[in-house]
């Protein structure tokens, strides 16, 4: 059994603990920690595990063999670097860090070990719909990809949400999945503020339009709505030379009644990608047991942050900014 310690007992942390405990073979959650001790104590009592007073204590604990980080975004980089000091395998939920500079520190620390120890939680790569889209693109049957049109819509946001988080916390998924689908790297990026929704009255931009150009000349546009008021709606269309590929909507029963035809739209991201999360966590545990990580790497987390930095820096300037990365180390090739 792989003994895992979880840092962060919020919504996604609890969901991953449930998943590891109930569904993932070869995994055992043995410890947890949270900024709010009461949250950690509650989870510990539920699963009969140990609650540590801090993430650092959990990382150093001898019984913890691998670390799952699901804490607040601003704490990710620090916990990853601490985990690397101890040479432990780490799964870090997105984003890897809030900026590219902190990602570079993580890459530097990981390179000293001579092998990959960090995986980033870009779970959409494990979604069957996205996986089939990538298969079709790589088959070449529709010719070269030319454009991607995407939407990322959330019902609402809690207190403390800021405009920049629309990129670092929300669109970060599109920054990874579009690059993965195309097998291409970003060249330039720009974010636009458009007419604002009446639902966006909490001091942050909503909607925003993300624009990207790749090294091969593909164009990507992403509509980012963090408060759409109707559902959790993820859309993606890849336009190729000979046709298009659309991400399927989640399975839903169609109801016909009262002269209408309808089906429900999900409102919770955990439900929309529940299978992808299950596959992702199962594959991570399996790869750790095999001693070779296969999922999204520190480099993938870094590239997404570089693009995110360019997008946030472009706000209000009306121009595309370059997406410039350091040279890619051999470890991530």
Automatic annotation (TrEMBL):
Its EC number is 1.1.1.18, 1.1.1.369. GO terms for biological process: inositol catabolic process. Residues 134-319 form the Gfo/Idh/MocA-like oxidoreductase C-terminal domain. It catalyses: myo-inositol + NAD(+) = scyllo-inosose + NADH + H(+); 1D-chiro-inositol + NAD(+) = scyllo-inosine + NADH + H(+). Residues 2-122 form the Gfo/Idh/MocA-like oxidoreductase N-terminal domain. Pathway: Polyol metabolism; myo-inositol degradation into acetyl-CoA; acetyl-CoA from myo-inositol: step 1/7. SUPFAM superfamilies: Glyceraldehyde-3-phosphate dehydrogenase-like, C-terminal domain, NAD(P)-binding Rossmann-fold domains. It holds the Pfam family GFO_IDH_MocA_C. Transmembrane segments: none annotated. Involved in the oxidation of myo-inositol (MI) and D-chiro-inositol (DCI) to 2-keto-myo-inositol (2KMI or 2-inosose) and 1-keto-D-chiro-inositol (1KDCI), respectively. Homotetramer. Belongs to the Gfo/Idh/MocA family. This is Inositol 2-dehydrogenase/D-chiro-inositol 3-dehydrogenase. It comes from Butyricicoccus pullicaecorum 1.2. The lineage of its organism: Bacteria, Bacillati, Bacillota, Clostridia, Eubacteriales.
């Amino acid at each position: 059994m792989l003994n895992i310690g979880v840092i962060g007992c919020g919504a996604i942390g609890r969901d991953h603990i449930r998943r590891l405990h109930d569904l993932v073979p070869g995994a055992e959650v043995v410890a947890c920690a949270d900024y709010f001790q009461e949250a950690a104590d509650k989870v510990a009592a539920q699963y009969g595990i140990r609650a540590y007073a801090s993430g650092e204590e959990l990382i150093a604990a001898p019984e913890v063999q691998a670390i799952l980080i699901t804490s607040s975004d601003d704490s990710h980089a620090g916990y990853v670097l601490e985990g690397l000091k101890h040479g432990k395998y780490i799964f870090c939920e997105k984003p890897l860090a809030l900026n590219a500079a902190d990602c570079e520190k993580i890459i530097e620390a990981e390179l000293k070990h001579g092998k990959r120890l960090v995986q980033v939680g870009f779970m959409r790569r494990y979604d069957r719909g996205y996986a089939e889209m990538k298969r079709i693109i790589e088959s070449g049957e529709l010719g070269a990809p030319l454009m991607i049109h995407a939407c990322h819509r959330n019902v609402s946001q809690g207190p403390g949400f800021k405009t920049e988080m629309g990129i670092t916390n929300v669109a970060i998924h599109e920054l990874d999945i579009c690059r993965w689908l195309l097998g291409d790297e970003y060249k330039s990026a720009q974010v636009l503020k458009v007419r604002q929704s009446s639902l966006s009255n909490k001091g942050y931009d909503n909607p925003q339009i993300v624009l990207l150009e790749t090294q091969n000349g593909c164009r990507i546009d992403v509509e980012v709505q963090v408060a759409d008021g109707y559902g959790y709606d993820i859309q993606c269309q890849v336009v190729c030379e000979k046709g298009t590929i659309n991400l399927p909507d989640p399975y839903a029963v169609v109801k016909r009644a009262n002269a209408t035809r309808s089906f429900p739209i999900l409102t919770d991201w955990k439900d929309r990608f529940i299978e992808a999360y299950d596959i992702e966590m199962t594959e991570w545990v399996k790869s750790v047991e095999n001693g070779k990580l296969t999922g999204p790497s520190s480099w993938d987390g870094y590239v997404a942050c570089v693009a995110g930095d360019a997008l946030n820096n472009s706000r209000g300037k009306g121009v595309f900014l370059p997406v410039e990365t350091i040279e890619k180390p051999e470890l991530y090739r």
